[in-house]
Amino acid sequence: MGEVVGYGRSLANLKLAVDLGVVDHAETSIDAAIENADVVVLAVPVGAMGEILGRIADSVTRETVVTDVGSVKAEVLLAAREALGSKVSRFVPGHPIAGTEQSGVAAAREDLFEHHKVILTPDAETDPGAVETVRAMWEAVGGIVRTMDAQQHDMVLAASSHLPHVLAFALVDMLVRRDEHREIFDYAAGGFRDFTRIAGSDPVMWSDICAANAGPVLELIEQYREDLKELARAIEQGDGKWLEQVFRRARRARETYIKPPEPDVPEARE
User: Are 73 and 97 in contact, with CB atoms under 8 Å apart?
Assistant: First the structure.
């Protein structure tokens, strides 16, 4: 019977992870944590991935499989090549599309990955056996595994996740700097809370994600900025017909492509 070993910087978090049953036991040494490990899962900010990969490189063997859960894949794959050298074949870039705006081990849930997609982005160097090991790991906890090119992943996630987070952070920050911000937040209804919920996400993690996926995010921000200019023009000119067409097109797209979660299945949030 296997076991799950945890490693992290905070002794308090490690103790909590053991107490909650998230890990079987914890280590304060990264070398001890991955000794004889079959699979090493890196759940650290994207900006720290290169450093951590470098620290474990000497311990990675031909039998070790290393994967991650980062929201950016091309930059992480580049860091893995630099840190692991020829051992990069044992690294399988991964990204579970699940979670909430809450972070830390206290936010763990047993059913977190059930019925949610997990994207793997192996390349030509990746050992097929390592890919199948990671696929089996995610399927064992209920994940629906898909594979995708790393660059395609980063553009898709920039649109579906990274840009929405940037917009939510920017909106809340803009409003809180207004003199009447207390009234704004006091009278905010459910729609505002739904739209800005993700502004409660970890600022360090999301600043890392934006820096690591800057190209696709900036491209989408520029497109969004141009579209906002058109919306502002229509509002200024009282062009209600044009606005209605945009709003109808958006509603139709949402109803067509964004399906509500199944009953008893937690909504995927990142």
Answer: no
Lowest-confidence segment of 100-109, 163-172, 228-237 by average pLDDT: 100-109
DSSP 89: G
The pair of three-digit structure tokens given for residue 195, joined into one six-digit string: 């739209």
pTM beyond 0.85: yes
Q: Are 109 and 269 in contact (CB under 8 A)?
A: no
134 vs 73: CA distance, rounded Å: 15
Q: Which residue from 121, 57, 124 is spatially nearest to 95, judged by alpha carbons?
A: 121
The torsion angles phi and psi of 52, rounded to 5 degrees, stand at: -65, -40
Please say if the pLDDT value at position 263 is more than 60. Answer: no
Q: Of 38, 37, 41, 16, nearest to 26 (Cα)?
A: 16
Q: Pick the closest to residue 33 from 61, 7, 53, 64 (CA basis).
A: 7
Portion of the chain with pLDDT greater than 70, in percent: 94
Comparison of pLDDT for 2 and 180, the residue scoring more: 180
Burial class (CB in 10 A: 0-12, 13-18, 19+), 162: buried
Q: What is the mean pLDDT of residues 3-11?
A: 90
Question: For residue 183, how far is the Cα from the chain centroid?
Answer: 33
Backbone angles phi, psi at 119, to 5 degrees: -100, 130
Note the pLDDT of residue 97.
Answer: 94
**CB neighbour class for 70 (10 Å; exposed up to 12, middle 13-18, buried from 19):** buried
Q: Chain-centre distance of CA 163, in angstroms?
A: 12
